[in-house]
């Protein structure tokens, strides 16, 4: 008996399973499918990305759907367009031997009227992104009042992206007696709230340990100065010639910039982020799956739709703001029983974050050194030699051999080998011969350091369009720091002050050496004197002191006013959404 048959699946689904070459169910499939087939129950399944969750809920949903009825019976919500399309395509493959069963994908970036037509023609199962689904409900283009099953896939990521209100609203249009199946990699408080509000005594399934990464993924970190981050990325790529990787950046801007730099430097790279059109995203993903792209630079949100089994490396160009996001990132590699590597490039001030990630994923990181130019040359030469030894001879070259032999007859075998390999060796040797060591000199453990704070003066302020929040965001991005890396931001009319940890002094001064903002030079200095003397130095004695006092008072009032607006009018949520949009 087929191992999938033992789970209770119908013959039509087993036929599709065999046709796709599936041999044995994954752990989450073994645990979830029998429960969902035999019982009418709610379920919460906690399992990492890449563990086969789509089949775990897809097989039972298809088997329980009446293909003879045109009424929508199942709704699947997923966070991104890519994942929505991926799920819909997989369900179509699972149900290809079931006549009359139709699955429709609903997502932004495509014609809403065409999607509405597909539903009207009959869609027993709808796979949708929350935003587009809410839009279609508002326009009365879809009816989900009779569904029997609702699946929340990647629930934690949907809530991270700010879809809490949309999900609440969508579920309010569904019947109370439906079954809700929630699948998530992690279980944050918001996911628990959804479960309590819309589910009744759900069965809980946990695959592995909560919040842990794949057992097939090894975790490494490399410590460099922030200004050397991009060069470190290139060396890691050069030291792994067969690399097929996803590189994660925090923002769309960084994603585009890193991808453009890699392309300019001769790497097969591309960017994947929320500013691309659907057609652009499809072309990028097609090229990546066909391995025409070796290095896909992506934001966390855009990468949710990546389902490629052979990714060799995940490179965290920047650590995510939310530590639990790291589990999603590392889940892009080590799939289908294959091994993978998750690399993290950090500055000294970020090393303490590694310890926090280790607690979440329950795995230890190995500190490694950025390879030297000499090591890279050696790796590349042996890689070339291996490629040559494995290459099949193309006998169409035979007709050219007499002429080639005539050109090369003066050289010995050893000389020919040297000349041949010198072509590849020279390329890397010339590039790296004067390259510096990118590894930081200090190897201190910064996990629990509590360094003193340094205050800085910067010559931009309110007249440049900054308030404390905008300046803090600007500084975090310019300095490539996490959300707590910059503090005590105090914005004046024409200048401002801010603090960082004292260990960042060299980095701050180096980043802002010859830094320009819209054509204007930005000057940053360490502020050594007292607050009273600062006012005198910058604003001319007593007038500066009085002016400073007035601005400080107004600054605190303005800050209190903003806090009240946030509390009463959702201002904080609006800011969060702006930040989330930049992560896409």
UniProtKB/TrEMBL annotation:
One of its GO terms (molecular function) is helicase activity. InterPro entries: DbpA/CsdA_RNA-bd_dom, DEAD/DEAH_box_helicase_dom, DEAD/DEAH_RhlB, DEAD_box_RNA_helicase, Helicase_ATP-bd, Helicase_C-like, Nucleotide-bd_a/b_plait_sf, P-loop_NTPase. Keywords: ATP-binding, Helicase, Hydrolase, Nucleotide-binding. Residues 34-205 form the Helicase ATP-binding domain. A motif (Q motif) lies at residues 2-30. Residues 572-584 have a biased composition (Basic residues). CDD domains: DEADc, RRM_DbpA, SF2_C_DEAD. Its EC number is 3.6.4.-. Gene3D superfamilies: 3.30.70.330, P-loop containing nucleotide triphosphate hydrolases. This is DEAD/DEAH box helicase. SMART domains: DEXDc, HELICc. Residues 216-376 form the Helicase C-terminal domain. Residues 527-584 are annotated as: Disordered. Residues 2-30 form the DEAD-box RNA helicase Q domain. Residues 552-568 have a biased composition (Basic and acidic residues). Pfam families: DbpA, DEAD, Helicase_C. Belongs to the DEAD box helicase family. SUPFAM superfamilies: P-loop containing nucleoside triphosphate hydrolases.
